[in-house]
Design brief:
alpha+beta; OB fold (Dihydrolipoamide Acetyltransferase, E2P); 2 domains; 4 strands
Length: 116
C-alpha cells in the first residue's frame, strides 16, 4: 500500500516528492521577497521625494513679531518693511504709510526672498 499521498510532512515522502515541494516553497518565498523589495523601494523613494523635493517643514510657519515700518496700505493689507529691509505683506491693518507698528508675520517669507 502506497501512503505517500496521505503523508503531511514532506520529509516523510519520497525524495522526488520532497524536492518538488521544496522547490515550490522556495519559489513562493522568492516571489514574496521580490514583492517586498519592490514595496521597500517604492516606500524609500516616497520618503526621499517628500524630504528632498517637497520639504514638509516649509508648511509649518515660523512666526516672528517685531516693530516694522508701514510702506503702503490698501484694502487687502499693509506692506511693511522689516528691520533688515525686507518687504512683507501682513493681513488687513489700518495704519498709515511711514507709521511704525508691531506686526507678526512668517519669517520664512524673508528667508525665501534672501534665496532669490
Amino acid at each position: 500500500m502506497d501512503l505517500r499521498g496521505f503523508l503531511i510532512f514532506s520529509f516523510l515522502a519520497s525524495e522526488n516528492q520532497s524536492t518538488v515541494m521544496l522547490n515550490t516553497g522556495l519559489r513562493s518565498i522568492r516571489d514574496m521577497n521580490e514583492k517586498m523589495m519592490i514595496f521597500g523601494a517604492i516606500a524609500a523613494a516616497i520618503v526621499v521625494m517628500t524630504t528632498l523635493v517637497f520639504p514638509f517643514w516649509n508648511l509649518i510657519p515660523n512666526t516672528v513679531t517685531e516693530v516694522v515700518t508701514v510702506r503702503q496700505s490698501d484694502s487687502s493689507g499693509c506692506y511693511v518693511e522689516t528691520k533688515d529691509h525686507f518687504v512683507v505683506k501682513i493681513p488687513p491693518c489700518n495704519a498709515q504709510p511711514g507709521q511704525n507698528i508691531t506686526a507678526t508675520f512668517d519669517a520664512k517669507v524673508r528667508e525665501r526672498e534672501k534665496q532669490i
